[in-house]
Sequence to fold (628 residues):
Amino acid sequence: MGAQKAGAAHEPAAPTCVPGGQIPGSGGRNPAPGGVSLTHAALAGRERVGLDSWFLHFDVPELASRILPGQFLMVGMRPPATFLKRPFSVADAADGRITLLLRSYGEGTLEMSRRRIGDPFELLGPFGRGFRLDAPAARAVMIAGGIGLAPFYILARRLKELPTPPQVWLVYGERSREAVTAGVERVLHFDRVLTYTEDGSAGERGNAVDGFRRLAAAGELTGARLYACGPHRMLEALEVERERLGTPAEYSMEERMGCGFGICQGCAVPANPAHSAQAYHLLCKAGPVMDPTRVLWSHPALP
Amino acid sequence: MSGGSAANLAVELAGVRFQNPVWVASGTFGYGDDFQTIFDVSRLGAVVTKTLFLGPRDGNPPPRIAEVGGGMLNSIGLANIGWEAFRERKAPWLRQHLPPAQLVVNVAGNTAEEYREVALRVDAARAEVGAAALELNISCPNVNEGGTNIGCDLRLTREVLREVRAVTSLPLLVKLSPNNADLVPFARLAEEEGADGVSLINTLYGMTVDLHSRRPFLGHGSGGLSGPSLLPVGVFWTYKVHQAVRIPIVGIGGIARAEDALQYLMAGARAVQVGTASFLNPFASLEVIDGIARFLDRHRMDLEELIGVAHERRPQNVPAAAAAV
Ligand SMILES: Cc1cc2nc3c(=O)[nH]c(=O)nc-3n(C[C@H](O)[C@H](O)[C@H](O)COP(=O)(O)O)c2cc1C
Ligand code: FES
Fold:
């Protein structure tokens, strides 16, 4: 999940809150297990990792300890630069630190990328259903399109912590070399990284779905479990190929979100009528990680 | 309630006693149970359900949400699980977690007959679900009248009110649409037809065009504007309607902080509803309750003394520092 559009931008203000502290009178109480909290956190670290992408780090031990791979947070800035908070997949959560992968595409995300160390943020969550860790396969193949790379750092980490960890392969597609997130190939949890760029300036020429085709043709998907995250069009194209092979899979999807926890009904994703009586799933609750067979991929309303 | 506050926030409205005047607005709190892991909903003045039709509705195609200057647009399209599913799957949780009679059931229909039918069923199940009142969402297209928005048509509004009033003795609130040149005739009509109060306002029509696709951004085309930009609109209509009718007003639109809610109360609302603000900060409604209590404590005032105070002739000059919440 990335982030999208913005409202009016404000100048960043000096930090006014305790890092990792919770909003007095609200999140001050400890959330119930599986509970949701609104955490005030100062930006603890900021690394530019590509032409328009950044890692943002927050030291929030309590929140970090509750994140499951594939879950997301609704993220806002103080003072707010966007009216609504934006959904972000948690890229990593370890040692008390949460990392988000930010790509600036609109005013709001651009403003977020400009915030400095110490600037106050609000992290609301964690929300959503993440990837399954109880469906082991000998090989985990992750298909990432652009910013869809985000949840695979934490997924790979958690898979490697299982008693019998799978091999973890990453197929990663980007526009060009400048956009490629720096250092992916050095992430220890990935046993193999296949990079594709649309212009061929890094890795192979093509996209992440081409990578899937190549692995399929080489018979390297036998016994594998697929995890995908990226733009809707990529997932739709991937699903055509995957369905033919029948590889078990989970896709992390993106949709506009008003709230992140089921109350606004804003995040509708068309449901596959063969598997569902209702026309839409609410992505924030049913997902963001979905069984691809539950989604109607060819719906005209989808981008 | 608010730690150590002496203020009594209880308020009587439409014959019901609510423990405080801060409710959460229809469509911005789901059916309450999504707050299970967030906070204790029994602290609220009331929970207003998402608008319930007789049967489930899928709602509009995505995208359903857009951020705009001063708030957001939504074109959810009244997606809801339907009254029967609500009664079976959601009401038991609410029953268990809300104090008795702090639930307001918001309903609508595609035709006046459907409004009557759903009202009849809520009435029959009032004890079972713990319904304190019925709120009618009249900002809905009438399918028999070429999709005319009922809440923008006095004749259709009257028709719906008569059908509903005839079948229920539940306290009845009519939720007015601001997409009219004047809301006063609608409020007067509600009073005439035996409604026990009006809630105002619903969302304002709006649209945003996507510069990339060069088409309306929302899947449905247009949507409803909510959030901070509605605050002065809602306060204005609260003030105007307060001058025109005797039935109580529930103020809605752009409330995110106690300061916003206090404006509505001073303009004449007996209760308020927090809407979109719960999306950005799920705890917003609790913060509004605490802020009102602090304000009353600091000024040693009763809630009743505050309600409608903006209509008094003699100006009250309070030092700026004391005006703060
Ligand atoms: C996403 C969304 C869904 C809504 N759904 C309903 C609804 O089902 N029924 C209704 O009467 N009002 C609905 N409303 C209107 C709100 O109850 C409220 O009147 C309006 O949003 C103005 O208040 P606010 O500015 O505090 O949000 C909805 C508003 C939003 C933002
Ligand atoms: S984002 Fe609000 S219901 Fe899913």
